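Morning. Coffee machine broken again, so started the prediction first thing and wrote up yesterday's gels while waiting. Chain of 339 residues, entered below exactly as on the submission form.
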Amino acid sequence: MNPSPILRRFPLGFVWPTLDPFLFCVHHVDDYPAGNRQLGPQAALDGRCLGADFSGKDGWSMYHGESVPGFPAHPHRGFETVTIMRSGLVDHADSLGAAARYGRGDVQWLTTGRGIVHSEMFPLVHEDAGNPAELFQIWMNLPAASKMADPAFTMFWSDRVPELVVHDGAGRRTVVRIVAGALEGASAPLPPPKDSWAARAEADVAIWTIRMEPNAQWTLPASQRPGVRRSMYLFRGSAQVAGQTSGSGTGLELAPTADLELAAGADGADLLLLQGRPIGEPVAQHGPFVMNTQAEIARAFQDYQRTQFGGWPWDSAAPVHGREAQRFARHPDGRVETP
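Came back before lunch.
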């Protein structure tokens, strides 16, 4: 009798459990109202703990923002952030002087390396309609040899993120967006190639979002690389996974060496897959810093206090880029790119 390909089930809270090489995963869904002239919400903020509002009151949170929702300037060292925007916008600014506005299917891949300060604000650009936002932020570890890499970001604009569309025997669709890795000949853009664990073919890193139409069926193929670990998160709808029914809010650790039969329920299913060979090194983490030893964490705090990782060249800790700004990225060398 074949063992079940489901190794473990776990519930999904605000922060989702992850496996090495991943450190953190969070799914933000906010039904923001119309925006005001400052790109914040046209709504009273009474009753919110501004600066630390994770309440979900009225279907949305301000997070650490006080007038515009989001995450004002904060430091990082030693890992990568992958931000997948499904809807809404993010205004990025950082201590290297770089800036970006991205969203609506775009992905930002940020290597924090030896240290960067950045802000991530959610500008509410529509004054006469709502500003719904949905995103994933995923933290992926860097190996010790790359912890002190130069910080940088890469933009994967939405039209560069490949989609694999599969129809089952009844014509029902499954759409897989490939943020990292490859699937049936479709390959994601490369992350920063010198330093990212995801740039190593033998690591077999995959970050895929999977949307299945009602009652659609699809077989997730096994990994062909040894030593890989695989997690799947069902965050909307319901599905049978290897014949076992799961509802929204379910996480699964999967055996990566077996094909996996998926069948969406009557309301369809949305899933996230994270996969990769573990880095297999000690992890020391304190807040925004992820290193290999506690001594390195202490050094990270000392370096940040001494240098502020280059300082903060912006007038505000929470800069936004104006109502009329289109999606763009301006890199530290002055290079500007647009979708």
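Residues 15-46+63-161 form a domain with the Jelly Rolls fold (CATH 2.60.120.10). Going to sketch it on the whiteboard this afternoon.
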